[in-house]
């Protein structure tokens, strides 16, 4: 049997798949990846995409519901609606079980590791409370339609949905009223809040696409945020206020440029810093590396523990994040930041790597995972790495890299997973690895 776009088929949803899908395997046709379904359900699914090997679909009617199904709190979390959330139709404990299943699946298939995984809720996410899993997102990027309406994109589409209020956005972002303004001549609007300080910023990207109309001026006076910035290329120009926010984590404040990376769940930075340091266990005199260090969160926490007899080096490519990291680490002279692409910094020049040997390493790479040079540095005996903490937001690239590391003598000691993105398919993991040298040590 072949499928066509728009066709409605009666299918049984099977196991969960990475990306917010359930897999249906009809006897008479190719596999179908179905959104808005749950494992074990029988649904009518409307086909949205067909390839030579599979079809994609969305469940438009539930014929036999899972006991884990709940009514989605957002009216736009539906077939044909907003693509920002994947699992609003599942109870929060079920969402975490689905994410754990995906992590186990990726570990088994890509790394050959068979391991039980539990996805932990972050502080403040109590299942019994009303609104649990909502109101957490501290950074939201709104796309802008041709008529100036700011909204969120439909799943796998450029269509902009007028959502009015995003239920997973933090209340301080909702109060900015971004979706109630008309953004003439604007391509996107990004709203950011630092929960610890309450500071907010709005980043405006001008629309350079020809739309057959004349754009109006940016409504800076109507924006309630303390800081308003314009994005031009990779840089940000303040139109009002300063270009950074003050976030709080690990017992102190951190300067974070409005466009720099910071965890979007209010409880994530604390939880991840705690998990990373619990494994690395920095001691006075240790040398530690923080690769893809961003604004220096892990480097800063490690610097306090290694003391003046030790050394911490962060590596980061983003210019604004490097400025922030150097500012954030200024009280510890033994902590410094190298600006540059991690792969380039670790690539041997003249037979030598530009970074010193280090007993401890943490890496928090982008979704694409570790660069090859990181794997090689970690695995070279002369670099002396004993413990490695790998922070990952993508189970597939994490599993791929774990396969490469275990093939080079590293062992997976522990893996913790955190529900840092409730209602979506995303999950944050911290993998704790020990080298062959560490395994032999008492």
Descriptors for this entry?
OB fold (Dihydrolipoamide Acetyltransferase, E2P), Rossmann fold, alpha/beta, globular
Protein topology:
Elements: E1 8-12, E2 16-17, E3 21-24, E4 31-35, E5 42-50, E6 54-64, H1 92-111, E7 119-121, E8 139-144, E9 150-153, E10 160-161, H2 171-174, E11 186-194, E12 199-206, E13 227-232, E14 235-240, E15 244-249, E16 252-257, H3 268-280, E17 287-291, H4 297-306, E18 311-316, H5 319-328, E19 335-339, H6 342-346, E20 360-363, H7 372-379, E21 387-392, H8 395-407, E22 411-419, E23 428-434, H9 436-440
Parallel strand pairs: 4-6, 7-22, 12-13, 17-18, 17-20, 18-19, 20-21
Antiparallel strand pairs: 1-5, 2-3, 3-4, 5-6, 8-9, 8-11, 9-10, 11-12, 13-14, 15-16, 21-23, 22-23
Overall, the morphology is globular
Tell me the domain tally.
3
How much helix, percentage-wise, in residues?
A: 10-25%
State the helix count. Answer: 9
Radius of gyration: 23 Å
Chain-averaged pLDDT: 94
Strand arrangement within the widest β-sheet reads 7-22-23-21-20-17-18-19
CATH topology term of the largest domain: Rossmann fold
Total count of strands: 23
Beta-strand percentage range: 25-35%
């Amino acid at each position: 049997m072949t499928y066509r776009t728009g066709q409605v088929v009666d299918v049984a949803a099977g196991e969960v798949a990475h990306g917010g899908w359930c897999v249906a395997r009809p006897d008479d046709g190719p596999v179908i990846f179905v959104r808005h379904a749950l494992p074990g359900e029988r649904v009518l699914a409307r086909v949205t995409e067909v390839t030579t090997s599979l079809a994609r679909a969305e469940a438009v009617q539930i014929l036999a519901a899972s006991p884990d199904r709940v009514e989605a709190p957002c009216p736009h979390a539906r077939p044909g609606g907003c693509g920002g959330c994947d699992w609003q139709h599942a109870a929060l404990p079920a969402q975490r079980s689905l994410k754990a299943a995906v992590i186990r699946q990726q570990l088994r298939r890509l790394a050959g590791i068979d391991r039980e995984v539990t996805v932990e809720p972050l502080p403040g996410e109590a299942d019994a409370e009303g609104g649990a899993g909502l109101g957490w997102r501290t950074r939201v990027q709104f796309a802008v339609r041709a008529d100036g309406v700011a909204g969120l994109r439909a799943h796998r589409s450029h269509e902009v949905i007028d959502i009015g209020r995003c239920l997973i956005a933090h209340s301080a972002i909702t109060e900015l009223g971004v979706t109630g303004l008309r953004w003439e001549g604007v391509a996107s609007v990004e709203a950011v809040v630092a929960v610890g300080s309450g500071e907010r910023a709005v980043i405006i990207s001008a629309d350079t696409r020809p739309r057959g109309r004349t754009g109006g001026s940016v409504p800076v006076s109507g924006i309630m945020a303390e800081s308003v910035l314009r994005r031009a290329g990779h840089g940000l120009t303040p139109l009002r206020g300063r270009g950074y926010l003050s976030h709080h984590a690990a017992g102190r404040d951190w300067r974070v440029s409005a466009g720099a990376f910071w965890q979007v769940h209010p409880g994530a930075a604390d939880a991840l810093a705690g998990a990373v340091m619990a494994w690395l266990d920095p001691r006075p005199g240790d040398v530690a590396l923080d690769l893809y260090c961003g604004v220096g969160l892990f480097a800063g926490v490690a610097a306090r523990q290694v003391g003046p007899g030790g050394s911490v080096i962060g590596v980061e490519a983003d210019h604004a994040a490097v400025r922030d990291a150097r500012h954030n680490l200024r009280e510890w002279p033994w902590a410094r930041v190298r600006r540059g692409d991690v792969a380039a910094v670790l690539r041997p020049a003249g037979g030598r790597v530009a970074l010193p040997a280090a007993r401890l390493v943490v890496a928090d790479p982008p979704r694409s995972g570790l660069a090859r040079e990181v794997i090689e540095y970690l695995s070279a005996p002369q670099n002396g790495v004993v413990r490695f903490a790998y922070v990952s937001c993508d189970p597939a690239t994490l599993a791929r890299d774990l396969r490469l590391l275990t093939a080079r003598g590293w062992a997976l000691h522990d893996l913790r997973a955190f529900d840092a993105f409730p209602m979506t398919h995303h999950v944050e993991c911290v993998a704790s690895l020990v080298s062959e040298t560490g395994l032999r040590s008492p």
